[in-house]
Specification:
Residues 1-19 form the signal peptide. The protein is mostly beta strands. It has one helix and nine strands, in the order αβββββββββ.
């Protein structure tokens, strides 16, 4: 019996001596390449032709271009034409993007500047999948604004999410 116990003890000790001191595991590696974002624009954010009011006023063009609203009715001219720009995004399918709208240059005429605020789009600002959208905004017109054609610029930035 002592021999069996000794053999069993030696085999347990030897098994411990040959135990592994390292192990290996694997993980899959994936990568997805998507096409770069692209953007093109057509049209202009045109607030049209109007007069100044006796009060400071605002003109709002809805982003879908369906309406132009004046805060002061004495500014409205009959037959006035307005428009919104269209932006077209090229992107990979099934990948969403975020949207940022900025006024790069406020509409100016010489030393005179009008404030352009509240830029909005038909696409919203996050989780966009639309390939095209339009942009509207609010033009703030002081009662003493000088007569003439004011020009400025808006910028649209799209980024993958």
């Amino acid at each position: 019996m002592k021999k069996i116990t000794l053999i069993l003890l030696v085999s347990l000790i030897s098994g411990t001596a040959f135990a592994q001191n390292s192990v290996t595991g694997e993980a899959q590696v994936n990568a997805e390449i998507v096409s770069p974002l692209g953007i093109a624009s057509s049209g202009v954010l045109n607030f049209g032709t109007f007069t100044t009011s006796v009060n400071d006023a605002t003109i709002v063009i809805l982003p879908d271009g369906s309406e132009k609203n004046f805060s002061e009715t004495d500014m409205v001219l009959p037959g006035d034409v307005f428009s919104v720009p269209t932006f077209t995004v090229t992107k990979s399918d099934n990948v969403a993007y975020s949207l940022e709208l900025d006024v790069v240059d406020s509409p100016t005429l010489g030393e005179n500047t009008l404030s352009l605020t509240n830029l909005t789009s038909t696409a919203g600002s996050a989780n966009n999948s639309a390939t095209s959208f339009t942009v509207g905004g609010t033009l703030n017109v002081p009662s003493d604004a000088a007569e003439g054609i004011y020009e400025g610029e808006v910028q649209v930035t799209v980024s993958y999410e």
